[in-house]
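User: I've been going back and forth on whether these two constructs are worth ordering. Before I decide, could you fold them both?

Assistant: Sure. I'll take them in the order you sent them. The first construct and its structure tokens:
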Amino acid sequence: MKIDFIASKSEQFKKLTFYGQSPWLDNISRCMINSGELEKLIRNGVITGITSNPSIFEKAINSEKCGYPEAIKSLLQKNLTPFQIYDAITRDDIKSTALLLKPVYEKSGGRDGFVSIEVAPNIATNVSTSISEAQRIFSLIDEKNVLIKIPATNEGLEVISALISRGI
């Protein structure tokens, strides 16, 4: 497992910060969050940020128990669409991760301690929809150390400029 490898190499990862590097974990799941495994990696200075994407969440939801089946069942009872269920699950996991990374964010003066989530790629060519979606995600999670990833399209450049001007 990726986390086991990182934990076994924790001293090497921590040395990266000496050279001005900020190691990020390209993985996220409720198992890592709920078990304390993620908190330990953060607290011990092994990682300083975390990135996510739909593929990472798909893998976590399909391969792990750790509360996903219960969350999905509960959300289904509210008659939510598949997108709304995905949105609620990812938003909760990103919020939890942002809170775990908050001490890193504060200690570094906002240089480190970020977690990322991306807007859906199917809206990448619609500037106003992408801006609205990024604002919605950012306001619902409501943590300063959340980065919203925007697909790298021509329209995405316009979205990025608009979001930066809004402090996102």
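The second construct, handled the same way:
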Amino acid sequence: MSALSVKNVNKRFGGLKALDNVNLEIEASTVHAIIGPNGAGKSTLL
């Protein structure tokens, strides 16, 4: 069973595409990290 399911998430800030069709499945009792450069959309996703 998924603890978190994200499907087809899109987000724009004006003309800047921060998230483009993001899909993510996180299972219970697992550890994950979301990493990337500044402005990649990590905080927006969370």
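Notes on the second construct follow. Residues 42-45 form the longest helix (4 residues). The beta strands are 2-13, 16-27.
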